[in-house]
Structures are given as structure tokens and as C-alpha cells.
Amino acid sequence: MEKLFSLEKGRHWVGESCYHIVFVVAYRREVFAREKVLRLAKAYIEAKAEEMKIRIESMEFGPDHVHMFVSRCDDYSPRQMKRDMKGFVAFMMRKNHWSLFRDMLWGKKFWKRGDFHRSIGSVTKDKVRFYIDHCQHKHWIIR
What we know:
The chain is α+β, with helices and mostly antiparallel strands. 33% of the residues lie in helices and 25% in strands. It has one domain: Alpha-Beta Plaits (2-Layer Sandwich). Helix 1 (35-51) crosses helix 2 (78-97). The model has no long low-confidence stretch (mean pLDDT 88).
């Protein structure tokens, strides 16, 4: 039998807060097919998550999007968490690495305006982790 989340304890709370999040690149451009862009975006996501004290349980990229499974995000609403992460990554990528993808994106956008999140609780973390770790490879198949 798979192990469910154990409750986390903070100074003044007990509970769990876990989300499956998807961010999509503006215009669905396949910027993450470029290894350096992917590595930099991943590093910025990890840095922002650490700053926000959010744990990234799993993260996987498709050529035009990223899936994340995050936990310990009790201090943020999903909307605030996504806005802060997307904003930081977009700012840093455009400020420091614009030349790596300027042929694919224009204007001030890096991410598509919308995104996805779903709270995790009715399934085990192992099932979500398996999906993120093993089911993204279909996006890399040349059509």
C-alpha cells in the first residue's frame, strides 16, 4: 500500500498543502528544447521556491511547459505562489538571458498568461510524482 502524506507542523499550524502546477511558455514556443534555457529556468524556479520556503517534490519540463509538484506552500494562496514564481523566472530570464530565446519570444512575455493548479490530496504523492517523472516524455516525440 502506498504511503499518504504525513501532516506537516509549523509554529502555529498543522496540515498539508500540496499542488500540481503547470506553467506554459508564451505562444507555446518550445524554448525548453534548448538545454541551456531549460537549465536556467529550472535553477530560477528552484531558487524562488527556496526563498519562499516551498518544497519542490518533483519537476519535469516539456519543450513548451513545466510541471511541478510542490508542497509546504501553506504561507501562500495558489494564485500568489504562481504569480510570484512566474514573475521572478520571467524577469530573470529576460534580464539575463534574452539572447538565448529572443528569436522565439517577443515583447515582455516569457510565460503564457494562464496556468494550471490542482490541490493534491485525493491521490498519493507517488502517483503524482510518477505522472510528472514518467509521462512528460511524450512531449519530446518528433511529430
